[in-house]
Amino acid sequence: MNREQQARTEYFHRLHDGPAPLMLPNAWDVASARVIENAGAKAIATTSAGMAWSLGYRDGEQMPVQELLAGCKRICRAVKAPVTVDIERGYGRDAQDTGDLVAALIDLGVAGINIEDGTLPGTQTLAHPAVLCARIACARTIARDHGLRLFINARIDTYFSQDLAATAKLEETRTRALAYIDAGADGIFVPGLANLQDIATLARALPVPLNIYAGYPGAPPSKTLGEHGVRRISLGCGPIQAALAHLARMASEAIGEGRYDTMSERMFTVAQANGLFAVADTNDHDDATHAIAAMT
How many CB atoms lie within 10 A of CB 37? Predict the structure, then answer.
């Protein structure tokens, strides 16, 4: 573990303590990560859905783990900011599989992970919290063995479950959050939680930063969320959804109308696009070869 990675990780922790919430417009590849970093992002977070879609897979751990690692390796090499990776439910059959993935990601230079409890495949039934507790605990042990204070952000999918009454979701979220924190989580992420009063109630109940999803139309501005106790804001797959919609409009306009107005409104020059990337080092070697091979 090198000092630079340790410094980035400690810096990533401190970003959650700033005067304003940490804003994370999630990236799905190197180009999007560099655009986001150039816009002033202090950290880069990946979107699992965006990475999967960009590689031709559906969301939901359908992207092979080797492709996840390869994509993360490219992003980590291209940006200076700390990188946190969405690993969905942790991949693999058990906590040890998750631990192996976390070890490989640490070898690539990541500063944090996002891991969710989720719903049982093909259902809207929440997975038992013990499953995520075990995966978090294993990830924490692996990180400690590597000498890294990896930031573990635990996502809770209570607001996506149809098995819980609306009145029970906040309390179930709080209960799960405290269990995940006891297992080693550094932050709690609750996508789908939109009621500002409930957000404030949960933020007060947690001893760690609360992360809220804002990648949908009408989401409250960051100032409002910060005033209600939110310390981290994720846009998730919102940016790639918007980019795909913009591309669909450009394509329809060109094919159907023979015009290029939408495309021409905002374009990078070739120089600007090239400027996102450093000159390739032809002597560079793949530091992650063994990590990726171990996951096959």
Answer: 19
Q: Which residues are 112's β-sheet partners?
A: 84, 151
pLDDT digits (tens, 9 = 90+) for 211-265: 999 999 999 999 999 999 999 999 999 999 999 999 999 999 999 999 999 999 9
Q: Among positive and negative, which fits the CA dihedral 266, 269, 273, 278?
A: negative
Q: Does residue 36 contact residue 78 with C-beta atoms inside 8 Å? A: no
Are 206 and 230 in contact by the 8 Å Cβ rule? The answer is: no
166: exposed, middle or buried (C-beta count within 10 Å: 0-12, 13-18, 19+)?
A: exposed
Query: Any idea which architecture 3-294 has in CATH?
Result: Alpha-Beta Barrel (3.20)
CB atoms within 10 A of CB 129: 19
DSSP string, 68-108: HHHHHHHHHHH-SS-EEEE-TT-SSSSHHHHHHHHHHHHHH
Q: Can you list the pairs that 234-238 forms with residues at least 24 positions away whose Cβ atoms lie under 8 Å? A: 234/24, 234/26, 234/45, 234/189, 234/191, 235/24, 235/25, 235/26, 236/26, 236/47, 236/49, 236/191, 237/26, 237/47, 237/49, 237/50, 237/53, 237/59, 238/26, 238/214
- pLDDT tens profile 129-171: 999 999 999 999 999 999 999 999 999 999 998 889 999 999 9
Instruction: Read off the tokens for 30.
Output: 């190197």
